[in-house]
Amino acid sequence: MTLPTLGLVGLGKIARDQHIPAIAATGLFELAAVVSPDCATADGIMGGVPSFRSQAEMLAALPGLDAVALCTPPAVRHGLTVEALRAGCHVLIEKPPAATLSELHDLAAEAESARCTLFTAWHSQFNPAVEETRRRLADATIRSVAITWKEDVRRWHPGQDWIFAAGGFGVFDPGINALSILTDILPAPVFVRAADLHVPANRDTPIAATLEMGAAPGSRIGRITADFDFLQQGEQTWSIVIETAAGRLDLTHGGTRLLVDGVPVLAEPDTEYQRIYRHFHRLVTDGASDVDGRPLSLVADACMVGRWHRTDSFDW
Amino acid sequence: MTLPTLGLVGLGKIARDQHIPAIAATGLFELAAVVSPDCATADGIMGGVPSFRSQAEMLAALPGLDAVALCTPPAVRHGLTVEALRAGCHVLIEKPPAATLSELHDLAAEAESARCTLFTAWHSQFNPAVEETRRRLADATIRSVAITWKEDVRRWHPGQDWIFAAGGFGVFDPGINALSILTDILPAPVFVRAADLHVPANRDTPIAATLEMGAAPGSRIGRITADFDFLQQGEQTWSIVIETAAGRLDLTHGGTRLLVDGVPVLAEPDTEYQRIYRHFHRLVTDGASDVDGRPLSLVADACMVGRWHRTDSFDW
């Protein structure tokens, strides 16, 4: 049986560290082409795989291409996704799936009219520990949820000015991973009640943020808070602590480890991207889509109801 | 035939100026109760109609109530709508229908599971001139759309501090009316590309904003701009100028008048709230809902991708 062919668009860190190894490890798609404005880079990384300078060139050269995985910055994802869907390709989009909610709604409609699969891949949702946490919370009385997501932007996004440009999400770029886990594990919808957003004097997106959230009345879910920081020195923290009537859950290391009342229950190696490609393949086979706008809604809501504060300038 | 009964929740300016006269003029609902924290006010305005201090009291006293119209500030609409839907009431919500998009999505789901009508009433959409503009733009090549929405907050919202508190929308409170017309008249979805938001030093929401928008590729729609100002002295402006390949449309006076190449085509008296109650009655009769999240998405998107600027303090 021939594998569906896939073009990888954008060859940044996430494409090289995660997508290419996961495509190889799962063996469900044939990597048929890569797209990078800098062809020399693409040739250097990919050896035998054809490389193109733009998605349009790739689509023209490979009219039978089955699928595209988009790993570009969010600002250009809407246009590229529309282009790929209209060429009849199934599309997997890295998180966040679009620059705005209006774009994301439009993409869902475009995928439907193109009869193609659209998959908004929130990678943090694809950890076994996240799934196990969801299972344990399904019928729980949840007293509180505290998200702490603190990392050093200089270490994880060195020199990436786009992240602090308008539309670049700032600290919400990692923070939205926590929110994608939150909406996935809780048995009821979550709402932003208030937020404080701290924006460097010389930048346009937050470098730190705190959110107060809550769930609908009658949902047996108490206070939900998030503390996002992009200037964390030393130990990096990506954890969610959930206090339930039956005990405490610690989902740590970005959703890869689960402790129940302090006792480790799950700690699997990081295979989230393999699970993502398996899910994408299943969606394509089933003719289905998986479009999850909840994490992006929470960020937009936080920006809309939040208080904006100016803080110290940030330079690399 | 007995009319469906309706409870009016919130007795502010919009309820008194628009809802009560429209309910009387259309004669499709029986105004069965009003809710106001200040009962004396309610008694003074409504004479014979029973008044309650909270919606919960009203729902307990009138278990057969058919419908509720919510005219409270946006921050409390989600909780009140859920309460009314769970009591089996159809709900009409004043604009904006919720404080956040997550709340609005939840309300749509609640209405579906309660099998009740939910109607997010964007009143500016209910003008004959708006409908006529939509008809004329259906197949047009649209070169540009320029929204100018400039009014004096001291005149229209005197002393209403909530509008400048976090979550109060600021200049987007009137501006969202323009956006609700925009999404209604254009034949393709609209996206925010960039925004500048000007927030007074002593407040938390914008007092002025400019938006750069666009539509999907292939939609024959050019540049779309919006200029919102809350400090307009003298003449107040609520206009949308649309340049098409076939000529120019001026939708003025908040969407109530239409000029085609400078010639008045439609100028009807302001009957939008009568049309709103007719539409609500039809939805209830048909067992349908009308939930339009597009204007709120555009505001949230503008806040997420926008540049925030501090401007002079604002005092009444």
Automatic annotation (TrEMBL), chains A, B:
One of its GO terms (molecular function) is nucleotide binding. Pfam families: GFO_IDH_MocA (PF01408). InterPro entries: Gfo/Idh/MocA-like_OxRdtase_N, Gfo/Idh/MocA_oxidrdct_glycsds, NAD(P)-bd_dom_sf. Residues 7-119 form the Gfo/Idh/MocA-like oxidoreductase N-terminal domain. This is Gfo/Idh/MocA family oxidoreductase.
